[in-house]
Amino acid sequence: MRIALVLMRYNPFGGFERQAALLARHLLDQGHAVTLICARWRGELPDGARSVTVPFISGASWLKVWSFARGVSAHLQQHGGEYDRVIAFERAPGADLYRAGSACHRSWLALRAQQGGWRDALSRRINPLHGVINGVERRIAEDARTGRTRIITLAPSGAAQWREYYPIPPERFAIIPPALDFSRFDNPPTRQQARATWGLAESDPVWLHVGSGFRIKRLGLTIAALAQAPLTHLLVAGRDKKLQRPMQALAQEWGVAERVHFLGGVDDVAACYAAADLLVLPTLLDTFGAVTAEALFMGLPVAVGEGAGSAALIGGDARIGRTLPQKITPEALAQSCAQLLQAEQSWDEQQRDDARQTRRQAAMSCAPQRVFAAYEALLNSI
Predict the structure, then answer these.
(1) Which residue from 275, 312, 353, 359 has the fewest beta carbons nearer than 10 Å?
(2) Which intervals hold domain Glycosyl transferase family (predicted)?
(3) Which tens digit of pLDDT belongs to each residue from 349-374?
């Protein structure tokens, strides 16, 4: 097949872009012809792929979104016959498949209305970006409703968000998680080696936070919960320029500063998983959350907010972890974490091995071969 992948910028280091590049390489390996429809790109394209640029206005964010969606629509109207299938990794109407890597914007705005103050409300009202994004998504939703487009969400929660605001039949959605390369975790350091890096004792309970965006991932809540968990340490792998110092000050206020280890950006995140006992991520909203799958692959139990798409990996299995409600107190979070670790300690070695295998199996739904097989089946079904 002749397949076009749509993304605003080709950058091999970005999240959307990595997913598009992985899929492009797989499709090329399967003998398909692949075209990348971009506004601009950086770095080398996958071997064998060709690129097409569309008109794009740089500057204000709303102009970028509007001009790119308009440019893609115009290109597909003129050259759509050159492609058998079109997969959009960006908000752009007219594609056969739209991969919703970002949350439905109206859902995101509703969350901001709940969590933000008056400054945030003013920003939402006067910033034209929100109206532009909602307009583009409205066109995508109409394409889905009328049968032209199928929307790929990374988890069932993503489809539910869209259907809350747009009358799209459930059969117009497909659930395909991101493709994750777990090979970088094939030779992790030992628990003892990893803990020695940060001066942690073998007997110390250790929670782990991975990711930037401290506000949406509610690191403040995790720090407050840590105050209810004596002797427990928290590793924070990730950087947030705006909230780094406020979070450090919060740790001081709660009297846990000596037990919170701000690591910044970490190249070898495998060492963090090896050192930890539990991933704690009470996220408010995330289309997926790859760190959940990574932690499960490494054998850790997870405590994940219900707003994260990756909470679906838990599937109600207490051996895998626990899904945290949006309205949860620090005390309740600390209790949930304690219960997960107490259960782990109560098992014999065989039960712990079984639990680790169960977690790894849950993570393997993100293995590239499974994800690409789902894309192939979807492309063939159109």
Answers:
(1) 353
(2) 191-349
(3) 999 999 999 999 999 999 999 999 99
